[in-house]
Amino acid sequence: MGVGVDAVGRGVVYFVGKLQAGYRACLYSRIASRVILRLERGRVDSPEAIYALASEVDWATHLDASQSILVDFVGRGKGISNAVFGAQKVKDAIVDAVRTPSGARPDVDFDRPDVRISAHLNRGSLTLGIDLSGQALHRRGHGRQAQGAPLKENLAAAILWMGRWPDLAKAGAPLFDPMCGSGTFLKEGLGIAQDRAPGLARQRWGFSNWKAHEPEVWAQLRQEAQEKSRAGRKNPVRIFGRDSDSRAIANAEENIRQAGGLDGVSLEKGLLSASSPPPLSGLETEGLLVCNPPYGRRLEDEEGALALHRELGNVLRRRFLGWRAMVITEQGPMAKAIGLKASQRVPVFNGPIECRVLEYGISRKKVARDQG
Fold it and tell me: In terms of C-beta density within 10 A (0-12 exposed, 13-18 middle, 19 or more buried), how is residue 32 classed?
């Protein structure tokens, strides 16, 4: 992505650079949810202190009285028992700063604000910034057909990175999802393999109507990304998806087509139990299997979900010898049902559900029998 990391915190990465660095993060990051340009940070211990800190920002350099705003306030502190009240104090400071002599002032727009302001309160420290991303970055800008509970694109991309898919893709290794659903893993895997910037299809950003926006810099970055994408289409791609539901296959096909095309992608209807590795090209030494099997809260039949996880473990140990597998599922009975020893367990949230990303290095030795 070309952005130097300054510091890392829980759920956040800080970097310092020119505005171009922020634009580049918006355009190229597959894993980030938002990109915030920090404007002010300070200690606050009351609603009045929040208003005072927000008033220190020169808001007139960021928006006009004729523009709409939205304040995303996260956190609680002294005198701030809910986010709505916190957002109100920041909004009041902004409105008072840019109100014209005639009384014109910014309106609040919850759907399509011209400028989105981020306010994050943590342990008495308030950080204010401009949300350059606008909508969350997992919304890639193209349509999405889905059913059930599909992964967000940025979580799928993070799991692919954990599985070292960028390096495997360059080596010509195959990617396979035996329960592909709407095709999120396949779509993100294709984008990585073909060097397509995930933000290339988006038309509206948080900086689109921001006063300090630099259109020429942004246009140059987009042109660079388009050139990389055109060159990346020549990269050999071997991506395979399978699902027992014909509607899921149709959705996956449409989603992948909209995201960049189906060249190098093969989809088929079939049961997990009949899954087998695609033929190797002779150059690669392993493939990557990724999947998001249904689990407890996503499947009313918990016994059915456990049986599916046991089936996944049997398929992996019997047929995908020498492969690497990345599986996201609930911690507890579902993870245990797979019956394989994970080399890595990474805690993540899939929406509100706490999960684990399990990494397996599948042995090249055949097993004598399945687990029960």
Answer: buried
User: What would the pLDDT profile of 332-362 be if each residue is shown by its tens digit?
Assistant: 899 999 999 999 999 998 888 889 999 999 9
Q: At what angle do helices 184-193 and 246-259 cross, to 10 degrees?
A: 30
Tokens coding 53: 């800190």
Structure tokens at 1: 């992505």
- Entry pTM: 0.92
φ, ψ for residue 55, nearest 5 deg: -75, -15
Q: What is the pLDDT of residues 328-340, one digit of tens each?
A: 998 889 999 999 9
Domains and CATH numbers, the chain: 36-131 (3.30.2130.30), 153-196+232-361 (3.40.50.150)
